[in-house]
Amino acid sequence: MSEIWTAVLVLSIIGALFAAVLYIVAQKFKVVEDPLIDEIAEVLPGANCGGCGKAGCRAMAEAFVKQGNMEGLKCPAGGEEVAKKVAALLGCTPEESEPQVAVVRCNGSCSNAAAKTHYDGLQDCAFANSLYTGESGCAFGCLGLGNCVRACQFDALSIDPESGLPVVDEEKCVACGACTKACPRGIIELRNKGMKNRRVYVACRNKEKGADARKSCTAACIGCGKCQKSCPFGAITVENNLAYIDFNVCKMCRKCVAECPTGAIHAVNFPPKVERPAAPPEAAKSEPVATPAPEAAKSSEPTTPNA
Amino acid sequence: MKTFAMGGVHPEENKISTAAAIEEFPLPQSAVILMNQHLGAPATPCVAKGDKVKVGQLIGKAEAFMCANVHSPYSGTVAKIDTCKDAFGMTKPAIYINVEGDEWEESIDRTPDIKRECTLEPKEIVDKLKEMGIVGLGGATFPAHIKYNIAPDKKAEYLIINAVECEPYLTSDHRAMMEHAEEICIGVSILRKALGVPNAYIGIENNKPEPIAVMKAMAAKFEGIIVEPLKVKYPQGAEKQLINAITGRRVPSGKLPIDVGCVVSNVGTAFAVYEAVQKNKPLIQNILTVTGKKLPSQHNYLVRVGTTYNQLIAHAIGTLPETTGKVISGGPMMGKAVSNLDGPTTKGASSVLVIDEGEATRAQETNCIRCGKCMNACPMGLEPYLFSSLVKNRRIEEAGEHNILDCIECGCCFFSCPANKPLLDEIRLGKNLYRGILMAKKK
Question: Is ipTM beyond 0.85?
């Protein structure tokens, strides 16, 4: 019988020893994690889209806790709702920021930029971009092979079969910026949603000289500068034969849209223009200057939670 | 008979223009000379608008390390210095010249006499290659002066001359060997002297019995030139495969041929070296094949750099056949489809290949059946099917760990795939993305 007792005794001693070692190690290498990280991670959307610039939602939660406030950190996918929840957990006020949306800055549709060659290689924009200019011959335009569509985690992008260009579903787009990184030509840009979702932008990225740009696309920006001269707010700059409208300065008067000889400037979500031949020019000018700034801030806020 | 050890395929040879003797291509009225016709940074224009230039005059100076001089192939007036769309539609810096007459620089020896003696020292030969803007004419257009400037801790043991011409259709090297065997052998001797190696090996595939005979007869008159007939297998003309075929050595992953004591140059480069060193003639002309199964006639031309693809086609056959699917610059395996026929040819252009619609269209892609044919065909011992799925899922670093950068882009995997998967496209994309990752890590 004594053998059994010896065995029990020896095993008990070994067990006690191991337990002591495990306890000491556990104490020594203890990782204290703020429970707040888990709570914030719970609130975040969990799509790991990377729109915030962090590796994922958990990394973002860690960044929030480490910083202690929300300055400079923003979850574009979650929007205002998530920002409010995170702010409540952190005990700070959410940062005010203009809601944004992805905008496709190319108008090289099948009819505007007719295909001069045919491509049947790998259906991947990044590869086609490294190979040649694209079917229309424009080295800056959309290749239409859908890298942005595949990058979108929110199902907000699709290729329009008629024009061959990506279309942004404004309801679904959360402005995470994944498509802007996926596009090898940098065609998609995040722009402010603007008052009542209205935007004015140059739908072209072609930096070639006017004649060369027109050769590959009839709707290309030719860098003529007419829009720049027509803009009363100095929102338009022309650089390298390409116009750009700064959305922070633009008051959406749409003067440039009428001036553009190729129709490269797009105005979206505006009501159809009513032709008023004898509109007093002074009134038209002063109205948009005086009112939009405060109104833009007010009206854009309530629209976003629904979006 | 020797060949390389691993992988390889046997595409249809289609060498239908072997009998066409080299013709001199007529001068155009105006021409565009690209400033980057070589691997590396573009040359800097050193003439101004309105300047008169002569044939062989330096117009683009190599200022960066990886760069080569560009000389004017025409005499006339510089119309403008601007950008130009190359054959693939990419905008590149270029010099436009209005061609007037054909006045050559006096320093260039235009007599038909063959000059055998070369009194230059090895260092002077390399300087001469740099001055004359010589680049590798095997396809990569690697500046020759960098290749032949061997680092002091490395030693060249073999000089290998690539006359394999393993790409189907191409016959420019074939014709060059038939018509300029002596010049080529002198060029090889000059390169041998520059490196200080005892022997130079000229590798020729045995589907070219005539050039083998001509070169063997000529090489017998020279010291240290050995003609090595090789068993036909694509891609024997790839640098690493040719080294393996001739010396049995294998270039380790990420290393250069010089690390195993080898220097490889194309037979066309040897001819250009002869002209540069012995005749003072810069690289302004190259031999170009215009071929295609449906073309009424086949041609080999001696073409000045800057001739457009349209001019070549118009002079050779008038108009393209209606059923043309693709015009390819280079061979059918590694060449690139030309999307802008108004683009100018460059130093490295070797052919204008017109492919019929039926042959140019890709077959419908189906699923990978894991048959492993791509692995057996890969001459670098890589796993193309693996890269395909890794790249598709953007697991680029993993592809890098499996040595995606070792791929020589020969196209054997795509050629052998029964599922018609665009394996090479995916690998090329993966290589580009992986290089981007490596660059970002360096910064």
Answer: yes
